[in-house]
Amino acid sequence: MSRRRGRRGERTKAAIDMTSMIDLTFLLLVTFMLTLPKLEQGVSILLPQAKTDALPSKNNKANTITISQTATYFNNQPVTDETLEKILLEKVAEDPEVPVLVRGDERLSYGTVMGVVKIVYKCKVRRMALVTVDK
After folding, report:
1. pLDDT at position 32, please?
2. Fewer CB in a 10 Å sphere around the end CB: N or C, the chain?
3. Cβ neighbours of residue 105 under 8 Å, at least 6 residues apart?
4. What is the CATH number of the domain that holds 91?
């Protein structure tokens, strides 16, 4: 028996099928594209619709107060009104220009959202914005 080697003793070249690797990469990319917006928002609420300008934020690290139907959150951590006031007073003492974004569920009453806004004003936060989604 003799082995075939091609021309004058050359070995055949090995090839790796990349189709499975490309499929896996595409699947991971799509998965991260779908889950990343949910990770950024933290607490899921229904924001009111309005036409607004871009939100001002200092070095893109604004503090977020989220008011859902069940609780109030400061940077995705549940807080009471008293705790929120203490935290905001500390933040303002560190930086008087601290940006605060208030995200209120549109299904809440006006008084509930305004109660939190009153706390923000009481703490003398100079840069506050109410977050909405574009129409």
Report:
1. 83
2. N
3. 45, 46, 47, 67, 68, 69
4. 3.30.420.270
